[in-house]
Write a structure and sequence with these properties.
The protein has 362 residues and is mostly helical. The protein is built from 15 helices and four strands. It has helices at residues 2-6, 16-35, 38-61, 71-88, 103-107, 123-147, 153-172, 174-177, 198-220, 223-233, 235-240, 245-271, 281-294, 300-316, 323-337, and strands at 183-184, 190-191, 194-195, 273-274. β2 and β3 (194-195) form a beta hairpin.
């Protein structure tokens, strides 16, 4: 893994156009909650989280060529870690049964808090868990997949199987996970002794999204990013040059899972629940759609697509429940006429990239 970390050096490339555009967009998002209503502010916060989740998938699919349907799993694992903390810190008076044990555990006959859940009643543990749980799980399955030299469509099939299996498992463990309903009616997020208002959660999410975008851009424009793109183009050639391809795949896979986990953790105080539905193939497919529609390997694309499709869904929901049909039509049109996604509509001078040719740095 030392070889991988050693390759994370910034290339001599300063994206001045993108820096200016990013600052303008950041200013717009910062002003947005002051001119929009509460509903639109909460919706935008959720779409920013989903867009950031799409960016995490873009790192492994758009740049490394690994199509995964398991990023909903990483998102949900992080969400459950934070949901347990908020549920366990719900006051006894606010609890349906007037006690400290979560209601879904009481319904299923538990008399005391399970030992593996008890540490999550402490905020530092919950914050660490929402990163370590998804990242650790990703590292384990990634080590198995990539060390075994599984590639192509077989990786996709494995991620589909993981998503389906964990959905079934979480639903079946109702006493510990809340079953189909998940964990609901959680407490408000409290930081430094003060309850965080919806506006505060919005800005926490905006800051997280901005940091992920900046970090992802820096990473993909470094020598490490050149290696990732080269793995996507010709994995065997990179292996012949002496690089341990599996290490690079495991690293970016684990990193993207950690980002997805944080997104899931922030989703809970925003929407006050988490459920196994986000483990499912349907949600994993949605993430893939955001990346495909926005444009693979663009970073900005998934966020734009998540916001655009989310707003379309919100508008169509007022007229019909068949919003999936509208999204499906958009996806077909993009695949047919914009195979490189919505970002390909921008002038090419804005999309100019450093050459993908791998240059070994001594």
């Amino acid at each position: 893994m030392a070889e991988v970390v050693g390759r994370i050096r910034q290339a001599n490339y300063v994206p001045k156009r993108w820096l200016a555009i990013s600052l303008v967009l950041l200013a717009i998002f910062a002003i947005f909650p002051f001119v929009a209503g509460t509903f639109q502010t909460n919706l935008m916060a959720k779409l920013l989280l989903f867009g950031t989740l799409g960016v995490s998938l873009d790192l492994v699919w758009g740049f490394t060529g690994i199509l995964s349907f398991a990023h909903g799993v990483f998102f949900t694992l992080g969400g459950y870690a934070m949901a347990y903390y908020l549920k366990l810190n719900l006051s006894a008076t606010a609890n349906n049964y007037g006690g400290t044990l979560p209601d879904f555990m009481v319904w299923n006959g538990l008399k005391e808090l399970p030992w593996f859940i008890a540490p999550l009643q402490y905020f530092p543990v919950a914050v660490i868990a929402m990163v370590v749980l998804p990242a650790g799980f990703a590292y384990l399955i990634g080590s198995f997949i990539f060390r075994s030299k599984v590639s192509g469509v077989y990786i996709t099939v494995i991620t589909l199987a993981i998503s389906s299996a964990l959905t079934t498992f979480f639903v079946s463990q109702q006493a510990y996970t809340g079953g189909t309903n998940g964990i609901t009616d959680v407490s408000k997020l409290i930081l430094f002794g003060a309850t965080v208002p919806p506006m505060g959660i919005y800005f926490i999410i905006l800051t997280f999204a901005a940091l992920v975008m900046a970090g992802s851009w820096w990473l993909t424009q470094s020598n490490f990013g050149l290696i990732l793109r080269s793995i996507k183009e010709n994995e065997q050639r990179i292996s012949y040059l002496g690089y341990d391809v599996a290490n690079f795949k495991i690293f970016i896979w684990t990193l993207s899972a950690g980002i997805a986990g944080i997104a899931g953790g922030l989703f809970v105080p925003l929407n006050n629940f988490i459920s196994p539905v986000y483990l499912g193939v349907a949600f994993g497919t949605q993430i893939v759609i955001w990346v495909a529609v926005g444009g693979r390997g663009t970073l900005f694309g998934p966020i734009i697509a998540a916001i655009l499709l989310g707003q379309i869904q919100n508008s169509v929901d007022r007229v019909t429940q068949d919003w999936q049909l509208i999204v499906g039509v958009i996806l077909v049109l993009v695949v047919l006429f914009l195979p490189d996604g919505l970002m390909s509509l921008l002038p090419k001078k804005f999309l100019s990239k450093k050459s993908n040719q791998l240059e070994r740095t001594e």
